[in-house]
Amino acid sequence: MQYFALIVPLLFLGVFLFAAAKRVKVYDAFTEGVKGAIPLILNIFPYMAAIFMLTALFEESGLSAKLCDFLAPAFEFAGIPREIIKLLIIKPFSGSGATALLSELLETYGADSYICRCAAVCYGSSETVFYIGAVYFATVRERRFAAAVVISLAAALAAAVLGCFLCRIM
Amino acid sequence: MNGIFLVLFLLCAGYFLLFAPESFLPVLLSGATRAGTVCLSLVAVYCVWMGLMQVMEACGLNRLLSRGLRPAVKGLFDTDDEGAVECLSMNLSANMLGLSGAATPFGIRAAERLDGGKNIRYNQSMLFVLNATSVQILPTTVLGLLLSYGAADAYSIILPSLLSTAASTLLGVLGVKLLIRKDERRSRRRGRKEKKCSTSP
Predict the structure, then answer these.
(1) Is A33 helix (H, G, I), strand (E, B) or coil?
(2) Do A77 and A154 belong to one domain?
(3) What is the DSSP letter of B177?
(4) Which domain holds residue B92?
């Protein structure tokens, strides 16, 4: 774990040294790259705003809780503890929401509980699907990944089932 | 995306109309505020990584890395665009290291390069699935959280985590390969047929 923190500084050190050895003007190149950050954000922003407004509505209206209740029996049948279902449903919509939920679970059940181990595995095995859809393809003219959303969600669900099973036997 | 957005939005709006009409606008505003703050923090993240990215490009490290990952990328994607292959390999390697902030600008650039090329639907779907199912090797965020809550054996989740992440990615890739490739071929064949039809009088 502590070695993992070395990756980022090593990456920068390595790249900059390599660039210097290749006689690249590092300062000029770096600033040139940074220049692209603002236009990129401007491109993404409208989609982010729309998605975040929708997420807020979805969570605050209690519809997400209703969806959890509705789906709970099916999830429990697949071996996923009831406490994690909300996490699984929030995760595709909001990364920060999922992180908050995971901390909540950790506080309630303790970090070494079966539930939290499952939650941790489920949290790690998928990303915020809708956010990726909004951000990655914001500037693209032809958006044709609707089927990919379904595939990703299905894969994440299958991974969660497997993860909970593995937590039980490992 | 348009369909999903509209349906979900209408459902939520209807719910608010019936049960809590006065909190509808505050909730919308809080969502927009969050978008603003997230975008601000993303500006910082992109400044760091896009700066580094440009330096890597200037000294040819991008090309070196993409040469190493080329077989993998070529196996997953169907594109002839060298720039796209480069962005895709950078996106994949950043994701594997768990640097999602670095992965995003590459992913966006890759999506732009893939747009307008061949097999758009297949390539976009593959890019989407790879990024959505997480290919991270070490779940650093989760490990950090577990440790901060005093887990005695936080590292015991690494193996199940790795296996389930691998499973989700594999399933996703398989799904795209099986479901979407076929579709593309069929439409291409149909395209050819149409051409034949139009040439014959």
Answers:
(1) helix
(2) yes
(3) I
(4) 42-187
Q: A19 CB near a chain B CB, below 8 Å? A: yes
Cβ–Cβ of A162/B167 closer than 8 Å?
Answer: yes
Residues A55 and A20 in one domain: no
Looking at the fold, whether A68 and A87 belong to one and the same domain comes out as yes
Is residue B137 within 8 angstroms of chain A, CB to CB?
A: no
The residue written with tokens 């992109």 in the block is: B46
Please answer whether residues A58 and B13 qualify as being in contact, where contact means their C-beta atoms are separated by less than 8 angstroms.
no
Parent domain of A31? 1-35
Asked if the ipTM is above 0.90, the reply is no
Is A52 in Cβ contact with B32 (below 8 Å)? yes
B132 in any annotated domain: yes
A70 and chain B: CB distance < 8 Å anywhere? Answer: no
Q: What is the pLDDT of residues A78-99, one digit of tens each?
A: 888 888 888 888 888 777 778 8
Task: Label residue B25 exposed, middle or buried (CB < 10 Å: 0-12, 13-18, 19+).
Answer: exposed
Partner residue opposite B59 with nearest CB, options A24, A57, A145: A24
Cβ atoms of B175 and B130 within 8 Å: the answer is no
Q: Are residues A76 and A131 in the same domain?
A: yes
- pTM across the whole model: 0.81
Contact B128 A145 (CB under 8 A): yes
| pLDDT tens digits along B153-178 | 778 888 888 899 999 999 999 999 88
How many distinct structural domains can be found in chain B? Answer: 1
Cβ contact (<8 Å) for A18 and B59? Answer: yes
